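Structure in, sequence out. Go:
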């Protein structure tokens, strides 16, 4: 029995929420959980937006830590700061216009000041570890907005992404221990790809473990996420509004837990298989549906190893879209 109690809560908040267990059978998920801080309880948390999920594993994710921040306001300064060796906290100020993909080295926190925008290009977290990307707006990128490959311990949080060419947040090539939280995607097609190719099993099996929580898929079209090989992949407390093609797809032996999400005007909330990719495993529980389909699920998913706190699915819309909700500019970092 695993007790679901968030490490973020103060004693006052603990008094407001009841913890429940996740029943395990042979290491596979077979039960439900419901420790749900909402409203006053969420405000009582010591830090309601602290890191949870897979990026807490494998040693955790601290980015640049307490390193004194460096502020950048042009493409050259940003490029140089991102690729430099050593730990760094990089504050992005204003709108930076660029093209292509800017390489992000290990031990970096890339944090937007108020209104910070990266326009025309994206960030490439490649062969790196311990990276945080928060509070940035990405628009009009000409490749991916955020690409993670051959990298571990990455946290992508409270960003806004819109109107780009390819993936908004793509994670692939044996990457592992990643959390994608509180991001808003709108006016965009391909949102979040996990695992780039059906033929990459030799690298990806045993990796691609990612948590997606409290993201706002605002009229985006597909890949929320589209998963290959990763198991378990945890998709919880996200708000899907007017999604065009589909919400979550599990393929190529993946194991995806779709839990406590709010689906509204989303005809195909989740399914197994996609395109030429064979079906994976998908367990769905405690989701909330408004004018949406019921989804397709089957198979079993490996157990979730970390503690987390689950908002009641019916409250997720208000939590994710409210003040302090998903997207850049909603929190002070």
């Amino acid at each position: 029995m695993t007790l679901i109690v968030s490490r973020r809560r103060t004693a006052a908040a603990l008094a407001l929420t009841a913890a429940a267990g996740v029943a395990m059978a042979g290491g596979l998920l077979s039960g439900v959980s419901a420790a749900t801080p909402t409203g006053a309880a969420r405000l009582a948390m010591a830090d309601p937006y602290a890191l949870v999920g897979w990026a807490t594993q494998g040693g955790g994710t601290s980015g640049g830590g307490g390193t004194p921040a460096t502020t950048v306001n042009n493409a050259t300064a940003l490029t140089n700061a991102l690729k430099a060796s050593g730990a760094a906290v990089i504050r992005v100020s204003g709108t930076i216009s660029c093209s292509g993909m800017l390489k992000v080295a290990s031990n970096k926190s890339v944090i937007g000041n108020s209104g910070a925008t990266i326009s025309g290009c994206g960030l490439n977290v490649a062969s790196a570890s311990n990276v945080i990307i928060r509070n940035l707006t990405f628009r009009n990128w000409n490749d991916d907005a955020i690409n993670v490959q051959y990298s571990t311990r990455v946290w992508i949080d409270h960003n806004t992404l819109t109107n780009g060419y390819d993936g908004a947040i793509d994670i692939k090539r044996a990457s592992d221990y990643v959390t994608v939280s509180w991001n808003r995607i709108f006016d965009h097609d391909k949102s979040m790809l996990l695992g780039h190719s059906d033929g990459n099993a030799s690298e990806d099996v045993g990796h691609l473990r990612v948590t997606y929580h409290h993201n706002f898929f605002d009229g985006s079209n597909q890949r929320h996420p589209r998963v290959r090989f990763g198991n378990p992949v945890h998709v919880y407390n996200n708000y899907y509004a007017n999604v065009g093609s589909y919400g979550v797809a599990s393929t190529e032996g993946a194991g995806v837990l779709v839990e406590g999400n709010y689906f509204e005007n989303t005809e195909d909330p989740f399914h197994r298989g996609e395109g030429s990719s064979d079906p994976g495993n998908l367990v769905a529980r405690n989701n909330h549906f408004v004018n949406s389909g019921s989804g397709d699920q089957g198979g079993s998913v490996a157990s979730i190893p970390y503690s987390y706190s689950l908002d009641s699915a019916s409250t997720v819309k208000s939590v994710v879209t409210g003040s302090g909700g998903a997207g850049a500019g909603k929190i002070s970092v």
